[in-house]
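quick one before i forget lol
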Amino acid sequence: TACSLDEGINWAVENYGRKIIVDSIENSVKILSIIKSNYPHSLNFIFPQIYSTDEYEIVKNLGYSNIIFTLYKSDITDYDLVEWIGDKEFYAVAMWHHRIPYLAKSLNNLGIPVYAHTVNSSILLEYLRENYGVQGIYTDFMGGK
């Protein structure tokens, strides 16, 4: 169900333990700044996604700690990502499931959970969990096969 930012924040407050992933794609830093200014109490349940390495320090300095680096807009190579991310704190790194065989082990060894998108099959979900340690998914719906 679509909702306003006010409604989403109120929902998360009323449903303790729920998280809101901010997938703003464009103007993400500006939107995260607005959220921090208007809802400073929400930083513990807001999970911002960043789309480039340049956004990390900015978002971290805004006070967000549950940052997800989603790779679909980034042209960073697997090698460069592993080198860059080593001393950073991330909630997770999200990527297309076809990148997982190359990155999951390296990221898991660094203690960084891996999320896959878009996974609409329980069979694929189990395969990614069992073989690559994927800890979360993005889905449109969860189908059987």
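fyi Strands lie at 20-22, 46-50, 68-70, 92-96, 114-117, 136-137.
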